Amino acid sequence: MSFLENKGISREEYQKIRLNAHKKRAEKGEVLSQFYYANLIRSDDLVEAEKYYNLAAEQNYIPAITMLMYEYSDIGEFETDQNKELYWTRKGIELGDVSSMLKMARDYSIGEIIEKNEAEQEQLLVRAAKLESAEAYVALSQMLKFNKNQQMQFLRNAISLAGMKNDRDAFESACFGLGWNYKPIENNPDADAKKSCYFFFLAYALGNEHALHNGQESGYTPQHEELEAWGEDARNLKVRM
Q1: Total structural domains in the chain?
Q2: Residue 23 contacts by C-beta under 8 Å, 6 or more apart in sequence?
């Protein structure tokens, strides 16, 4: 018998008690309850949820701010509003939120809701990278203004940070980038078939389907013992080359 059942309270009754408690605190201006109350009611009342997300965001609560910057975009559930999307993205940046910096950097790169601006994109990515964002280093490595040595260093920085933070997506992206940089193709002074195969293998092991074909194209065939060791690296988000 659960604790709730022992007290004679059903799970449904408990949820109602929890909801009402958060609502009362939210109405008094308690920011955490404003955010949690919005989360609890959004599936039933999106308009009311939007109201409380905004109330929490107006108190500079980062999770609410990042929620709004995506909800007002074309992938969100709220009515699309680019002005509000940009407003809350900028507010997040002002408060030092890395995800807001990364989003705005992508917006400057794409040029749909705001004019393309490579200088602003770079500035935001550098700022996010200084805050130890592996994703920012991956994005910097893809900017054509940097030479290959710089790009590869960005990727290694990304791998190091991603491994420490267990960021599988950034680790996979960085490994794919290094696999490509070491790929034995014409006029590639850094060509290394084994390293290329290794990094493509790590990317593939983490879900990048394109990495398998690229790894096969490297021309290197790993031995069984190597594959076992490489698989261990992928599981632990570590590199040995």
Answers
A1: 1
A2: 33, 37
Give 147's Cβ-side CA count (13 Å radius). 3
Instruction: Write the DSSP symbol of residue 7.
Output: T
Is 136 domain-assigned? no
Residue 10 lies in a domain: no
What is the pLDDT confidence band of residue 7, given thresholds at 50, 70 and 90? low
Helix (H, G, I), strand (E, B) or coil at 231: helix
Would 161 be classed as within a structural domain?
yes
| SS3 assignment, position 225 | helix
Residues 18-37, buried b or exposed e (16+ Cβ, 10 A)? eeeebbebbeeebbebbbbb
Which domain does 225 fall in, by range?
144-241
pLDDT tens string 96-127 = 999 999 999 999 999 999 999 999 999 999 99
How high is the mean pLDDT of the chain?
Answer: 95
Q: Are 219 and 184 in contact (CB under 8 A)?
A: yes
Residue 126 lies in a domain: no
